[in-house]
Write a structure and sequence with these properties.
The complex is a heterodimer of chains A (1093) and B (233). With 1093 residues, chain A is α+β, with helices and mostly antiparallel strands. Chain A has 24 helices and 22 strands. Helices cover 63% and strands 14% of the residues of chain A. In chain A, the strands form four sheets. In chain A, strands 3-4-11-8-10-9 form a six-stranded mixed β-barrel. The longest helix of chain A has 151 residues. Chain A starts with a helix and ends with a helix. In chain B, strands 6-7-8-3-9-10 form a six-stranded mixed β-sheet, with helices on both faces. In chain B, strands 2-1-4-5 form a four-stranded antiparallel β-sheet, with helices on one face. In chain B, α3 packs across α4, α3 packs parallel to α5 and α5 packs parallel to α6. Chain B is globular, with a radius of gyration of 17 Å. The longest helix of chain B is centred in the C-terminal third of the chain and has 18 residues. Chain B is built from six helices and ten strands, in the order βββαββαβαααβαβββ. With 233 residues, chain B is α/β, with parallel strands linked by helices. The chains are: A alpha+beta (1093), B alpha/beta (233). Chains A and B meet through α13, α21 and α24 of A and α2 and α3 of B.
Chain lengths: 1093, 233
Amino acid sequence: MVALGAFNKDIARSIRHSLGRFIAIAAIVALGTGFYAGLRMTAPDMKLAADEYYDGTCLMDVRVVSTLGLTDEDIEALREVPGVSGVQAAYSADVLATMNGEQYVMRAHSLSPSAAASTQADAATIESSDGNYLNRLELAEGRWPEAANECVIFNDRVMSGPSALGDTITVDLSAGNADDALAVTEFTVVGRVHSPLYVSSTAMGTSTIGSGTIEQFMYVLPEAFDADMPYVEAFVAVEGAADLPAESDAYDARVAQVVAAIEDIAPEREQARVAGLQAEAQADLDEARAEYEKEEARVKAELADARAELDAAKEEIDEGQRKLDAAASTLASNEKKISDGEKEYVQGGETLQKRKADAEAQFAEAEKQIRANEANLAEAQAALPRLQEALDQANAALQMPNLPAEERAQIEATKTELEKNIADIAAAATALEEAKAQLSQERAAADAQIAAAQRRLEQGKTAAEEGKKQLEEGKAEYEQAKAELEEGRAEYERGVADFDEAAAKANEELDKAEQELADAQREVDDIEPPDWLVMDRTKNFGVVSFADDADRIDAIASFFPFIFFLVAALVALTTMTRMVEEERMLIGTVKALGYGRARITSKDLLYAALAAGLGSVVGIAALSQVLPWVIMEAYSIVYYVPRAAMPIDWPIALAAAGLGVGITLVATWAAAAATLRETPAALMQPPAPKAGRRILLERVGPVWRRLSFSWKVTFRNIFRYKRRLIMTVIGIAGCTALLLTGLGLQNSINDIIDVQYGELVDYNVVISEKEDAAESEREAAADILADTTRLPLVVRATKASMIAQGAGGVEAMTTIVAPADAAAFGDLWHFRTREDHEAVALSDTGAVITEKLAAKLGLSVGDAVVFAEQDDLGNATATTYSVPVTAIIENYIGDYAFMTPGTYERTFGSEPDNLSVYARATTDEGERQELSEALRATGAVDTVAFNDEVIGSYKQMLKSVDMVVVVLVVAAAALAFIVLYNLTNINITERAREIATLKVLGFASGEVNAYIFREIVLLTIMGALAGLALGVVLEGFVVVTAEVDQVMFGRTIHGMSFVVAFLLTMVFTAVIMLVMRPKLARIDMVESLKSNE
Amino acid sequence: MAFVEFADVSKIYQMGEVEVAAVRAMSFQIEQGEFVVIVGPSGAGKTTLLNMLGGMDSATSGTITLDGACVSSFNRKQLTQYRRHDIGFVFQFYNLVQNLTARENVELASQICRDPLDADAVLAAVGLSERRANFPGQLSGGEQQRVAIARALAKNPKLLLCDEPTGALDYETGKAILKLLQDTCRDTGRTVVVVTHNSAFTAIADRVIHVREGSVASVELNGHPLSAEVLEW
C-alpha cells in the first residue's frame, strides 16, 4: 500500500501544518468528553470510595433498635439469624452536652472494647481481630478512652474549631430521655475519631432533644453507661454484603434478605422481651410492694407509737393539771390556814391581852376584894376583941342561969351570932388567906398561862410566818409548775398538730405509693411488646446524604457536557469546512488522479478522528481523575469518606469517546460532503468567493448609514459565515453560562446566609424552656428574659416538630411555630413573599408555610397542609392534623409552618405552651456566653441556641462551592479559548488576503486588528448575552438539582454576577486577541497577495 | 533629484543556507508624472521591485527615495503611513473586499487617508457609476479591476503601482484597463508604474525599465508613447 503510505504522510503533514486547528478540535473534544466522562464517573467514584470506606470500617449493614432495648438473648438470637456474620451490641443516648460553653445535642455511643486493639491499615480500612466490631472508628488524634470519664469525639472539619484534646464535656441528663442512661456526666476528651456512622458532618441525624438534630457524637467506654440499661441497638453485619458494591441491587437484595430474616425472629424476641421485662418488673414491683408494705407497717407503727406517746403526754399533762389543781387547793387552804392562824394569832394576842387585862382586872378586883376583905377583916379583927368580950359577956351572961329564957335565947342567939361572927371572921381570915394564896396562885397560874399563851402565840406567829414563807414558795412553785404545764400542754398540742399533719402526709404518701404501685402494676400488666426496628443503611443520614449528593452530581453530569459536545460539533464543522476549502485544489488533484471519494473523505475523517481521538484520550484520562477529585475534595469539607482510587469506568469512557469522536466525524463528513460532490475540474478552479450579501441591518437606513466601513464589514462578515456565528455564539454562550452558573451558585448559597440571616431573620437566639421546670426556676428565667439590656426583644412561641405529608408519600420534617405575639414576632422574623417582597402577616384562618416546604409538598395558597405527629424515632404516626395554607413565604433554612396561637389550638387541640423564646440578644461573644450560662443556671432552660453556629456550618458549605466555581470558571475559560481561538484562526487564515489588502492600503496594525477583532468582540458580546440567558436556566437547574433537604438555595443571581460573567467572558476574549495579534501581524502582504486563492 | 530613485537596491532572501537575491544592486530613476512600465520575464525581480517601492517589502540594502523621502529607511509604522498616503496599489487579482460594494471598497481606502478624492467621482472616472452598489462578486473581472484602480486612486496617492493589472483579464478588457491607467496618468499627472511581463506594453510608456535576473537591464525613455487604445499584442 504505497499509496496509503503517501496518504499517511499527507495526513501527518496536514496535522503539522494546521497544528492549531488540530489542537482546537482535540481540545474541545477533550473538554466535552472529559467533562462528560469526569462528571459521569464522579458519582460511581464517590460511591466506590464510600463502599471501600464502609467495607473497610465494617459499617453495619443493618441496625436493629428495640423500643424496649435489647437483651443478651436478643443479641444471641440475632447472631443465629442466617446470613448474619457479626453483631455488635451497643448503648447510646442522646444528651445535651456542654463543651467550652457551647451546648451541643450529642449522641453518646458505647465504644467497642475491641477499638483500642484495632489498627489502621489504610485511610479507609481499620483492621481488628474482632469480627463483631462494626462501625470501626478511625482514631485521628489522641488516644482511646481508658477510663469511664474519658471520651473520644468527632474529628469534624466543620466544628473542630472550638474544642481541643483535654477539654471537658459536661452532660446534662435532665434533658430528653437520657435520664439515667449515663453513669458519668463529665468526660474528658482524649481523642478524636471518624465514624462511618457519621460520614456527613452536617447530616448526622435527628434527635428528640434540643434543636432536634445531632450536632456531635462521642464514644465512651460501656462502663460510662448505666449498668442496668439494656442494649439500645444492635449493629449487624451481613455475610457477603461487603463483597457487593454498596447500594448495588445485589447488595440491597442481600441485605433485604437478612432484614427479612431478622424481622422474622422479631415477634418472638419482642414477646420474650415483654415476658422478661414483665417478670423483671413484676419482681421489682413485688419487691417494691413488700417494701411498701413494710414501710406502711413501719409508718403505721411509728404513727401508733407517736399517738401513744402523745396520749401518755396527755395523761401526764392531765395528771400534772390535777396535781397542780391539788397544789392550788392546798395552797389555798394553807393560805387560809395561815391567814386563819394569823387571825387566830392576832385574836389570840388580843384574847391574851384581854385575858391578861381581864386577869389583871380580875386580879386587881380580887386584890381589891382582898384588900377590901383585908380591910373588912382587919375591921372585923379589930371588932373581934369586942366581940370576944361580947361573947364573953354573953357567955358570962349565959352563965347566969336564970336568965330569962327569952333573954337567954336572945343572949344565946346573940352568942351564936357572935360566935358565928367570930368564926366568920376567922373563916374570913382563913378565906382571905386562902383567897390571897389562891389569888397569888391564880396569878402565877394566870401568869404562867399567859406566858404559855404568849409563848404559844409567839410560836404560832413564827409558825405562821414560816407557813407564809412556805406558802409563797409553794405559790411560786405552783406558778412554775403551772407554766410548765402550759408549756407541756402547748407542746402537746403542737405534737398533736404535727402528728396530725405527719399522719395525713404519711397516709397521703402511702396512698400515693399505693397508687403508684397500682399504676406500676398496671404498667407491668400493660407492657406492650416492643417494636423491633430493623433498619438498613438507607436510614443512616450520612450514608444517604452522601449517596444523594453523588446522584445529584450525576444529574448535573447528564446535562452539563451537552454544551461542550454541541460546541465540539460546531468547532469540528467550521474547522473541517475551512480545511476542506483550503485543500480544495488538492482534493481536486487527488480526485483527478483517481482516488475515490471515500478515500479522499477518509483523509479528513481520519484527521478529525485523530484529533477527536487524541482529545478524547487526553480529556477522559485527565478529567476523569481531576473532576471526581475536585468534586470529592469539595465534598470532603462536609463528608468524611477517604478518597479511593478513581478507576476509569470503561463503559462511560467509551461512551464519552464515542460521542466525542462520532460528533466530530459527523461534522467532518458534513463539511466534506459538499465539496466532494463537485467535479475535479471545478475543484481545480478557485471557489466562487462567497458573495457579499446585503444583510437585514442595511435595510435600516439610518443605522446603516451611520456605521463606518469597518463596522459594515464586520456586520456583513458576521452574517456571512453563519456556522461560525452559531459556533461562536453557542460556544461563548456556554462559556458565559458556565461562569454565570458558578457565580450564581455562589450567590444562591451565599443568599442562604445573607438573606436568611440578613433580611428575613432578625433574632439571633432561640431559648427552649423545660416543660417541667419549677415555678421558681421559671421565674428566675423570666427575670433574665425581661432584662432588655441583654435581650432587647423577646417573643415567646410554641414550637413543635411534625411531619408534613404531601401527595405521593412525600414527607418533610416541619417545625411548627406559634408565636404568642404575632406582631412582635414579625420584628424577629420578617415574613414576605420571595418574588415581590410582599409582607405577609399571620392570620387566624390558617398557617403560613415556607417556600421549600410548599414546593416539596406541592402546595399552594388555599390548599390544606397535613401534619402527622412523630414517634420517638421520628416516624410519622397516624395522628394527623390539617390546616389551610394562607401564605407561602421566603425562607432558606428549614421547613416551617407558622400560625397564631388560636390556629395552633384549633389545629392541634392543645393549648400553646409558649416554651420557646425567640430573642434578639447582644452580638458580643462574651456577653452571650454569660447570658446562656445565666439562663441555663436557672434550671428552667433546656437549650440556648445562637444562630452563629448554623451560620458557621453553612459558611463551610460555601467553601465547597468555591471549588466547584473554580472548575466552572476554568471550563468556561477553556471553552472560550477554544472557540475564540478557532474562530480567530479561521478568520485570519481565511481572510489573509483581505487582511493583506488592508495592510497594503495602509491600514495601521491597530486598524487591521480592529477590523478582525471587532467581529470577534461583537460575536462574543452576542454569545455572552445569549449565555446570560442560558446561564439563568442552567443555574436554575443546577441549584434545584444540587439543593439539599431542609435548605432552599437562593433563587436570584445577583446583578453583579451577570456583570462579572459578562466581563470575564470579555477578558477571555481579550486574552485570545492578545494571543492572536502576532499571527495577524505575521500575515505577509507579499505572500498573501502573490497568487489567486 | 528624481521623483523616484532606486540606488543600488538589493533584496536578498535567506532560503535556509542559501541566499537568493531577488533584486541585485538595482538603480533607476523615475520622474514625476511619468507612465512607467517595468518589464521583464517571470522571476526577474520586478514584483519585488514594485513591492519595495510600494512599501510592502523592505530592501536588504540600497536606498529608495520617493519625492525626497527615503523610503528604504522607514520603519514599519512609517511604511504603513507611506502606503496609506503616498501609494495606490492595483493587483492582478484585484483584491477587493468581497463583503463590500464597489463604492464601499473605494471608501474603505479613502476613509483612511488625508486628502481623498470623492469616491463617486472616482468611480465615475473609471466608468462604474452604474455599478457602485454592486458587490465584487456581481462584477466582471474588468469591472473589479476598475474598482481596484478607483480604490487606489481615491487615496490620491503620489504613486500608482500596478502589478500585472491585466494579467487576469481578457485582451479587450486589459486594453481598457491600460487605457484607464494611461489616461489617469495623462489627465491627473499622477505617476503610474505598471509591472508586466508583456513587453508590448512598453510602447505606451514614457519610461521603460527592463529588468532581468534581478537587475536593471536598461532604461529607455519613450519620447512618443502610443495611446493604449491603439496598442496591440
